[in-house]
Write a structure and sequence with these properties.
The protein is α/β, with parallel strands linked by helices. It has a single domain, classed as P-loop containing nucleotide triphosphate hydrolases (Rossmann fold, 3-Layer(aba) Sandwich), CATH 3.40.50. Helices cover about 45% and strands about 10% of the residues.
Length: about 290
């Protein structure tokens, strides 16, 4: 049984890397060697990202990279030990407790940031709460759906080394085909994720914030998260306003923006009904657009 678990569950391209970079400085929060374990999404069958071959490849890549930098012998040995655990079987909650080193640290929370966890079902979350974790806190970050899709698209091109990576605004047909794919689109379904979380978690177990607030007022946003977790105020080093893991700066073409707006309109309507909408988002939902268009 894990004592206290803090999860950031998305949305993808909504500032989780920036937040991770700051919160990992806090001694009351312990992050494992890997920022994103993706355990819950794998355990409950929403991804196969922790299959044996994928973990082996990830471990090999990480250890090869470590051997090419000026790491101490102690750091190398620690990494080898951790990746031995990471590549072990079976991938169950005991495994998760081991890779997060939940029994070895006195921090208030063990933390794992994985945007894939927003795809868990209500029953999945109830099982986590009732059978595996004593205290659970879940953070979900919302970002303007239009700009999140555009950022996700550009990031995907860069990550896959696609020929369009340096000119993401060149091929409208390819853009439409990609964002229409189920695996891509499901990251934009905030309203469904929120409803699932609200059905399974109590109000003190879930916190929903906005990417736009993280950009405009990073200090107070982080303080709100500390209060949510019951942590003391901590002085973080570095520029709290500096973005992390950003995608290529290219303006979203007007026609492409119109396409995304029409595609996300029903999602925006659903979010507003749930009470979630930010004044800095590009578009208000348009009730005149046919939901089946």
């Amino acid at each position: 049984m894990i004592n206290k678990l803090f999860l950031s569950v998305g949305a993808m391209k909504a500032g989780t890397t920036w937040l991770y970079d700051k919160l990992k400085q806090n001694p009351e929060i312990h992050f494992s060697r890997a920022k994103e374990i993706h355990f819950l999404a794998h355990y409950y069958g929403h991804t196969k990202i922790l299959s044996s071959d994928k973990r082996q490849r990830r471990a090999q890549f990480a250890l090869e990279r470590l051997s090419n930098i000026d790491a101490t012998q102690s750091n190398r040995e620690s990494a080898i030990d951790w990746y031995k655990t990471y590549t072990s079987e079976p991938v169950d909650f005991e495994w998760f407790a081991s890779v997060t080193e939940s029994q070895n640290f006195k921090a208030k929370y063990i933390a794992d940031f994985s945007n894939l966890n927003c795809h868990l079902s209500t029953q999945d979350w109830l099982d986590v709460k009732e059978n595996h974790v004593d205290t659970l806190r879940v953070l979900y970050i919302l970002r303007d759906p239009i700009m999140r899709i555009w950022s996700h698209y550009k990031f995907h091109l860069q990550f896959t080394k696609h020929p369009l990576a340096d000119q993401p605004d060149r091929d409208f047909n390819f853009f439409k085909q990609l964002i229409d794919k189920k695996w891509f689109w499901r990251n934009s379904c905030y309203s469904n994720s929120i409803q699932v979380l609200q059905q399974a978690l109590s109000s003190d177990e879930i916190m929903i914030i906005y990417f736009e607030d993280m950009i405009d007022k990073p200090d107070s946003t982080i303080r709100d998260i500390e209060i949510f977790l019951g942590l003391d105020k901590f002085n973080y080093s570095g520029n709290l306003s500096k973005a992390k893991n950003t995608s290529k700066t290219t303006k979203l073409p007007k026609e492409w923006m119109t396409y995304i707006r029409d595609k996300t309109n029903q999602e925006l309507i659903a979010l507003k009904k749930l009470g979630f909408y930010h004044s800095k988002w590009c578009c208000e939902p348009d009730a005149t657009i046919d939901e089946h268009a």
